[in-house]
Specification:
The structure is a single chain. By secondary structure, the chain is of the alpha/beta class. It has a domain at 173-310: 4-Layer Sandwich (Metallo-beta-lactamase, Chain A), CATH 3.60.15. Helix content is 41%, strand content 19%. A six-stranded mixed beta sheet has the order 1-2-3-4-5-6. The chain has a six-stranded mixed beta sheet with strand order 7-8-9-10-13-14. Strands 11-12 form a two-stranded antiparallel sheet. A hairpin with a 2-residue loop joins strand 9 (160-164) and strand 10. The longest helix is centred in the first third of the chain and has 36 residues, at 2-37. It is globular, with a radius of gyration of 23 Å. It binds zinc ion. Residues 97, 99, 155, 172 line the site of zinc ion.
Amino acid sequence: MAAIYQKFNEFLLATTVLNRLNAHLMVNRHAASLWLNEPGARLRVTAVPAFADNYIWLIHSPILPEQVVVVDPGDAGPVQKSLRNAGLKLGAILITHHHADHVGGVEELVRQHNVPVFGPIGEFSPGNPERVGDGQVVRLHELGLEFTVLEIPGHTKGHIAYVGHGALFCGDTLFSAGCGRLFEGTAQQMSNSLGKLGILPGNTQVYCGHEYTLSNLSFASVVEPDNRDIQEHIKLAGSLRERGSPTLPSCIELESKINPFLRLGTETVKRAAAQYAGHMLSSESEIFAALRDWKDHFRPSPSNAGTVPA
Ligand SMILES: [Zn+2]
């Protein structure tokens, strides 16, 4: 009887210790996640170049150094190679929109790594993703990562972005000094979507899907020839590209100074867009539509052309 009583006491003690440990972990995990969402806590993100000018982003887990999350793996090959070379393990896949250069590698990566996939609620993506929409949170607790989803239609009808830890993964909606083409959405939708991104904190790091910065700056400098921030950034981006380095990430503060599509309310941009359209433009979506049409027909000068967006 005494032996049974002693065993029961040991069981109670063990349970209490376990409960305390769990509570401690929960509190610490919560604190860690709050701290990690502070803009000051910079994520480690690696660019994996793919195709002519795509970037596939690897987000490193802040708590498990060998684990990464991949954003928009258009091609499995370069991702597998990067994982192998750096001894990394894939923990999850995030998809911003359904275009092949963003999802082409998803099925193969799922087959190889059997990881969860998250994709837009408003459109079909391969890999049987958990479909997420505006305001939903992608929680990857075991990796110490958490991202809020923003619906940003325009480039495609269901395009989403992931925001967290002071970083924005915005696919083909916002580019440095430019924005994506309107393939499925309207000018009104796209200007609203860009407006949503433009009000994120200024130090939010912007990870776009393509290296289009120089050709976008070439257009931006025609829209605003007297904008000194654009001229300075042309020099910086040019020297980065000469060294073969990405011009990304950008940040929202810089984009608010150099990106005409985030500057629809400024007089110089309004005036230039009206001049292109040949008449007064009354709303931001009209200004956006004129700028987007102008950009679609714009050919950058050969000296600072960069890559011409497809
Ligand atoms: Zn796209």
